[in-house]
Specification:
By secondary structure, the protein is α/β, with parallel strands linked by helices. It contains 8 helices and 12 strands. The protein has one domain: 4-Layer Sandwich (Metallo-beta-lactamase, Chain A), CATH 3.60.15.10. The longest helix is centred in the middle third of the chain and has 13 residues. The site of one zinc ion (ZN) has 6 residues, from α2.
Length: 244
């Protein structure tokens, strides 16, 4: 998700009975939404894993977009949920600089506690993860019992394992090859351990740094690296649609 391989940065759109939810809002997500014909004002909530720029800075563009007078009639109320403290700091700094260009009574910004949450019927759990900034991962439970896990950025840790345990689909970062492992991030070997330990039904790999992108280009990489796992493993691409 770092611009190589035709990918923009971290952002995933979840369509559910509780409206449209963005999981992170990295740079590029507004253009990707436009290419899908999805109006940014229709996004009901944004769930932010952490405040690194590749995960949240298109939120600023979304807030500005919502202030366009010609769009007011079609706006959904927007709730932004993310790590306590850092989210408040970033939003306050943006409001200080941009004022009424982004401030809007229909926008609510809320710091998240750990554990189970219910935002107007949209149910999810927030778990702490190990990363180079305060960060969360999420497990979302849909009304029909299906579950989606999202790692944000994390190295292997208890919170990530709990979020992914037997999930129907787990969106998991895979930033680096094993021989270039970097603290705070996942590698193919870590993905293998996660699959064997907690057995999500499907794992969608995402958030690739250049060395990992090069490895993905090798023929049969997925089959060789993950073919024997209990989880089906997919390499995610921008604009890919997954039915949970
Ligand atoms: Zn990060
Ligand atoms: Zn990242």
């Amino acid at each position: 998700m770092l611009l190589d391989g035709g990918r923009s940065t971290a952002s995933y759109l979840l369509e559910s009975e509780h409206g449209r939810t963005l999981l992170d809002a990295g740079p590029g997500c507004l253009l990707r939404l436009a290419s899908l014909g999805i109006a940014p004002g229709s996004i009901r909530r944004v769930l932010l894993s952490h405040m690194h720029p590749d995960h949240h800075t298109d939120l600023l563009g979304l807030l500005f977009h919502r202030r366009n007078p010609s769009l007011q009639a079609d706006l959904q109320p927007l709730t932004v949920l993310g790590p306590k403290g850092k989210l408040r700091d970033v939003y306050a700094a943006w409001c200080d600089v941009y004022g009424s260009w982004i401030e809007d009574e229909s926008v609510e910004v809320m710091g998240l506690s750990l554990g189970s949450q219910d935002h107007e019927g949209f149910r999810f759990d927030a778990y702490p993860v190990r990363h180079s900034a305060p960060a969360l991962c999420f497990r979302i439970e849909l009304a029909d019992g299906r579950s989606l896990a999202y790692s944000g950025d994390s190295e292997p840790c208890e919170g990530l394992s709990e979020a992914c345990r037997a999930a129907d689909f787990a969106l998991v970062e895979c930033s680096f090859p094993d021989d270039q492992a970097c603290p705070g991030h996942m590698t193919p070997a870590a993905i293998r351990s996660l699959s064997l330990d907690v057995e999500p039904k499907r794992i969608g790999l995402t958030h690739f740094y250049p060395a990992m992108e090069a490895m993905l280009a090798q023929p049969d990489f997925v089959q060789q690296a993950f073919g024997d796992l209990p989880s089906e493993v997919l390499i995610l691409e921008d604009l890919m649609e997954i039915d949970l």
